[in-house]
Amino acid sequence: STPPVNVTVTGAGGQIGYALLFRIASGQLLGRETPVRLRLLEIPPGLRAAEGTALELEDGAYPLLHGIDVTDDARAAFDGVNIALLVGARPRGPGMERSDLLEANGAIFGPQGEAINAGAADDVRVLVVGNPANTNALIASAHAPDISAERFTAMTRLDHNRAVAQLARHLHVPVRAIDGVVIWGNHSASQYPDITHATVDGRPVTDLVDERWLTDEFIPRVAKRGAEIIDVRGSSSAASAASAAIDHIHDWVNGTGERWTSAAIVSDGSYGVPEGLVSSFPVRSVDGAWRIVPGLAIDAFSRERIDASVAELVAERDAVRALGLL
Ligand code: NAX
Questions:
Q1: Pocket-testing residue among 129, 158, 247, ligand 1, by greatest number of atoms within 8 A of Cβ
Q2: For the segment 54-75, what is each residue's pLDDT rounded down to a tens digit?
Q3: Burial per residue of 269-294, b for 16 or more beta-carbon CB atoms within 10 angstroms, e otherwise
Q4: Is the ipTM of this complex over 0.90?
Q5: 8, 76, 119, 168 — which has fewest CB within 10 A?
Q6: Could you give the domains of the chain?
């Protein structure tokens, strides 16, 4: 029988953790044949909540769940880890400057990168969900010199899924009919949801939507969807974020076939994105690795928006470098 896969979730006592862990335990992350061992990492104030979630996981009597450990020790949490979902992060508090936020998160993702470097399995895959996700992934990767930077990714799948869903709704077509949507750049309001390569059942989407809808409704709606959820729901996206994290890892492990998705991965210099930045690209997953979709024509409208979001990533990288976090 298949040996269990070690899955570590940080911030496990939080709201995304609560939406995520039961789906992992039920086999939606790695399939119904693959047993999992869960490690939940929290900081002391979150430990009780994580322990409570662990009790409920036990009560699910999931046949695939081969054990749950709850800890506040990163070394223990990442020992032998195959899949690391880094959800816990320091949110922006009142009066906190951007550099304070980057510094506080550097203090989390640096040590976690070191612990991953020390203990992870050879096939480790890391997904950073906690914000600022791209730069947190960059910091973690910089602290894991023995692990290929390709193994550190950040989540823009929620933005991707939001873009696909908005497009499907606007065009009155099923989500499944749509391919070729791209999120470029940073997981922030500067992101660029690009439909210039998108198709509906093979037909170019650009033939089907007008430019006003694209610039005045679609792009801002996707980029500000997180704020809309907070406004309507009263708290930030959790189940949809968990769902996107499942999609990201599932596709990374199992492959995407010819379809594309979006993921923030280390840049190889493609599309003018400076090498080494963790930026969102159009990707396929082939043989267990993300591959940037090559050779897309980038029009002037897209170029400007990609460059703006990438400039924000460069500024974040420079700021954390100045703080000595890289
Ligand atoms: P919660 O505040 O509900 O939970 C976060 C948990 O992380 C808390 O229990 C806290 O104790 C824990 N934590 C903090 N520092 C930790 C550390 N050093 N080690 C382990 N655990 C730690 O937030 P939640 O709504 O679950 O969101 C988690 C993160 O996801 C936030 O940073 C949020 O901004 C980010 N998001 C990212 C998204 C994306 O698309 N990339 C979308 C959803 C979400 O906004």
A1: 129
A2: 999 999 999 999 999 999 999 9
A3: eebebeebbbbbbbbbbeeeebbbbe
A4: yes
A5: 76
A6: 5-154 (3.40.50.720), 157-316 (3.90.110.10)
